[in-house]
Amino acid sequence: MAWEAPGLPGYCTTRSCVNRQKYSSKFWPDLSGPGNDVQNAADRKEKNMLQKVFTDKAPAAIGPYSQGILVNGMLFASGQIPINPATGEIEGADIMAQAQQVMKNVGAILAEAGTDYTKVVKTTCFLADMGDFAAFNEVYARYFTEKPARSCVAVKTLPKNVLCEVEVIAAV
Fold first, then answer.
1. Which active-site residues does the annotation give?
2. b/e burial code for range 18-28 (CB count within 10 A of at least 16 → b)
3. CB 145 within 8 A of CB 80
4. pTM above 0.70, yes or no
5. Whole-number pLDDT of residue 44
6. pLDDT digits (tens, 9 = 90+) for 1-46
7. Residue 122 contacts residue 168 (beta carbons within 8 Å)
8. Interatomic CA distance for residues 7 and 36, integer angstroms
9. Is residue 85 a contact partner of residue 59, using CB atoms and an 8 Å limit?
């Protein structure tokens, strides 16, 4: 369906119009330039595809989920609990020791995805007891120096009865 704009004979709204070339530089993006060729389209498609992140330097998933997913230049990491990946055991008996192991696990996933703590944009923190908030924050602050957005909530129970869990979203 074509129409003529005032003062522009032959101009139309579809990209298949015969006279499109005459006005393309003024009205349409350059369809042959960077970002529009077949290779760049394939690159964009690959970037938009979901990619699983796995490292043996963080605990393996204990359910039907991935340690993390990369999509559109962002990492969405699953919550990490204080499991030592070398032993498979809970590391530490108090909140500070457990938070330290959680941060190591988060760091391993960030590194595997090609990013780090400075590129984390959002964290969600789960505590078994809000009374541990100050001690947890002390450990948290050593790692998240850029102060990303955060939610921190107390929950009734965490997997394996741990004291804390942290999930992150980061730019890659």
1. 152
2. eebeeeeeeee
3. no
4. yes
5. 56
6. 444 455 545 544 544 444 444 444 444 444 445 555 555 555 555 6
7. yes
8. 30
9. yes
